[in-house]
Specification:
Layout lengths: L1 H27 L1 E6 L3 H10 L5 E9 L5 E3 L3 H9 L3 E7 L1 E2 L4 E2 L1 H9 L1 H17 L4 E5 L8 H17 L3 E7 L16 H7 L2 E5 L16 H14 L5 E6 L1 E6 L7 E4 H11 L4 E3 L4 E7 L5 E6 L2 H8 L1 H4 L4 E5 L6 H10 L2
Parallel strand pairs: 1-2, 1-16, 2-4, 4-7, 7-8, 8-9, 9-10, 10-16
Antiparallel strand pairs: 2-3, 5-6, 11-12, 11-15, 13-14, 14-15
Helix pairs in contact: 4-5, 5-6, 6-7, 10-12
């Protein structure tokens, strides 16, 4: 009788542990979509919401006095709440006046105690008002001399948010080493940022772009190197990798026709130009070329369903927290299915 009882108890415990571990595994796999306030972005959320469990609304910036500007996209937030999708508010240092990310603007708010307090207080207020699960700090082009200052800023803001039960995610450029000569990535001390942030979203895209020479937007080897460095500096269960829902089209003659190409428009471009896409084995990406009406040669680099699936699987390989997609409105269902297959 005792043996039977012990066996029954053991079986019950095993079942509970199995169910718990499965629930934890499901909860741990974040699939986040970046969204704006536009119609295309909302339509993607409505169509493909079953493929994601989090969204980040990229609609907020701030002024030099720390005052936050921007509006919460009500339709997106309402839909997310209805479908039980967690929401993050993206706050960036993008400056409309210069049409770019502003390192000096970020530096001013990090350096001035009054501005920093106003910034933090208003973050808490907007999170509470709009029922955001967390805040995604996206400061890009941070000045190289502000490396330590930025780390302390993340520490202070994260701790203030934590007291109010608000999570913190920090977006950082992808890198495979700390190189002081690299002004773009040097300011981001992964170890210190990762110590205080709940998640670190590594922007594993824009390896190449129309500001430079043609090449893969996110080659497999580059992503691997970035993730290897990331998990050495940050707990793997805090790391989120980025997946681009776009490619780049280089006008190699003079750059006048260069442009970003959304996932949705690439197939029609290939058909229109009667192009012949080829798989580039070294990068694990797709590429093709064509000549436009001005007789300018173009080179296009992008991802297709197969390459997205392969690269998404790196999240499983490195046992990180999940993946993020930039951005909703660019993609089709085939893109999401590729991610779903890759992250299984």
């Amino acid at each position: 009788m005792k043996k039977w009882l012990i066996a029954a108890i053991s079986l019950a415990i095993a079942i509970v542990l199995f169910m718990y571990s499965n629930a934890e595994a499901k909860a741990a796999g974040m699939t986040l979509g970046y969204t704006t306030g536009d119609t295309a972005s909302y339509n993607s959320l409505a169509k493909y919401h079953t493929y994601m469990n989090s969204i980040a609304t990229d609609t907020f910036a701030f002024e030099k006095n720390g005052h936050i500007i921007g509006d919460a996209p009500t339709k997106q937030l309402t839909y997310a709440k209805k479908t039980k999708i967690k929401t993050w508010a993206v706050i960036s240092n993008y400056n409309d006046a210069i049409s770019d990310f502003d390192g000096d603007l970020a530096s001013r708010v990090m350096s001035n105690k009054t501005a920093k307090k106003r910034f933090t207080d208003q973050l808490i207020a907007l999170a509470k008002k709009n029922s955001y699960y967390g805040i995604n700090i996206d400061f890009e082009a941070v000045n190289p001399e502000d490396r330590s200052k930025y780390s302390r800023f993340i520490q202070d803001v994260s701790q203030a948010l934590k007291k109010k039960q608000i999570k913190t995610m920090v977006s950082v450029p992808a890198k495979s080493a700390d190189d002081q000569k690299d002004d773009w990535s040097w300011p981001y001390d992964y170890a210190k940022i990762g110590k205080y942030a709940d998640y670190v979203q590594v922007m594993t895209y824009d390896e190449h772009g129309i500001w430079g020479d043609p090449g893969s937007v996110a080659s497999t080897s580059w992503i691997k190197s970035s993730l290897q460095f990331s998990v050495k500096k940050i707990k793997a269960n805090k790391v989120i990798m980025g997946i681009p829902a776009y490619g780049y089209d280089w006008d190699v003659k003079d750059g006048s026709g260069s442009a970003a190409r959304e996932w949705n428009e690439l197939k029609s471009l290939i058909k229109k130009q009667k192009a012949k896409p080829a798989f580039h084995k070294k990068s694990g990406s797709m590429t093709f070329s064509y000549v436009d009406k001005k007789k300018h040669k173009h080179v296009v680099w992008y991802e297709n369903e197969k390459t997205v699936q392969t690269k998404s699987h790196l999240a499983k390989q490195y046992k990180i927290a999940g993946v993020s997609v930039y951005a909703l409105g660019n993609e089709s269902e085939s893109f999401w299915k590729a991610i779903q297959k890759g992250t299984k």
